[in-house]
Predict the 3D structure of the following.
Amino acid sequence: MDHLSAAFSALADPTRRAIIARLAENEATVNEIAEPFDISLPAISRHLKVLENAGLISRGRDAQWRPCKLEPQALKGIDDWLEFYRHFWDQRFDKMGAYLARIQKQKKKKGKS
């Protein structure tokens, strides 16, 4: 599976997106990440493994702790992919805005005559 597909697949799960949001604030241990969730630590570890395999997070080693941190470069790849479609939609909205302005101008002309 390519990197972008792995990233989107990992982010398809709302728990994993919440973990990413948590790690965007700062590094955290598995226990800290698990606190707000009503699921087991092994389940959190499985989510972390998916995120790690997708390159979205990494785990360090600090004594007995393995803090997790966000890998922003992986998110940059997603943003780059989305940027193309953001530009696509901006162009479409600009064309629709121009069309609506033209229609309003035509209505005003008809109203005056």
